[in-house]
């Protein structure tokens, strides 16, 4: 039975690396996969999923208005797809998450989504909230804070390294912009700010 999976974490936990490795495992066994990422994050290049350790692969892209159920049906006309992998799933819309759930239920294709759970202010991304609610299987990808505890939060920094407490929920960036922290050190960095 096909399932919708959500692999979630903070920044720099290795989500894209895991996605690329899992897809490689399928392909190594002769099974076809489709890779999908959002147009919002093109740090690895347009239509590419890239990892900080240097591996990458071509991927289809989607935007907020794209119907992912229709896209999957179209893919299945051309190939027998064993699994669909979605990177940067936090940038999907809740409607698109529901469409991916329908891919598993109605088309019988497993969908593995990888993304952030919360933003730099400690708030759920709308698509992440939908995935937490509707995914059949939730898997936390762990990384650590500088203190050695599990990192569950992330702070955003400006060009001078100052921690930002306000701003748009979506701002694409890497190690120069975001730092993963445990909740205690996130609270310290945010000067005691509450995510509520």
Automatic annotation (TrEMBL):
PANTHER family per record: THYMIDINE KINASE, THYMIDINE KINASE, CYTOSOLIC
Chief localization: cytoplasm
Keyword hit for Iron-sulfur: no
Catalytic residues, chain numbering: 88
Signal peptide: none
HAMAP family: Thymidine_kinase (MF_00124)
Amino-acid positions noted as binding substrate in the UniProt annotation, renumbered to this chain: 170-173, 178
Protein's name according to its UniProt entry: Thymidine kinase
Binding partners and assembly: Homotetramer.
A single BP term in Gene Ontology: thymidine metabolic process
């Amino acid at each position: 039975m096909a399932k919708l999976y959500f692999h979630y974490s903070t920044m720099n936990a290795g989500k894209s690396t895991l996605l690329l490795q899992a897809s490689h495992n399928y392909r190594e066994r002769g099974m076809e996969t489709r890779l999908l990422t959002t147009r919002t994050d093109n740090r690895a290049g347009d239509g590419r999923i890239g990892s900080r350790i240097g591996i990458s692969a071509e991927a289809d892209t989607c935007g907020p208005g794209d119907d992912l159920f229709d896209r999957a049906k179209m893919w299945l006309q051309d190939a027998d797809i064993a699994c669909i992998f979605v990177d940067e799933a936090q940038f999907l819309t809740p409607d698109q998450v529901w469409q991916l759930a329908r891919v598993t239920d109605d088309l019988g294709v497993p969908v593995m989504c990888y993304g952030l759970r919360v933003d730099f202010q400690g708030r759920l991304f709308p698509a992440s909230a939908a995935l937490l609610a509707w995914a059949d299987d939730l898997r936390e990808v762990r990384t650590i804070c500088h203190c050695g505890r599990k990192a569950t939060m992330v702070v955003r920094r400006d060009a001078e390294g100052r921690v930002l407490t306000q701003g748009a929920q979506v701002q694409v960036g890497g190690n120069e912009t975001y730092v993963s922290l445990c909740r205690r050190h996130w609270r310290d960095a945010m000067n005691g700010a509450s995510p509520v």
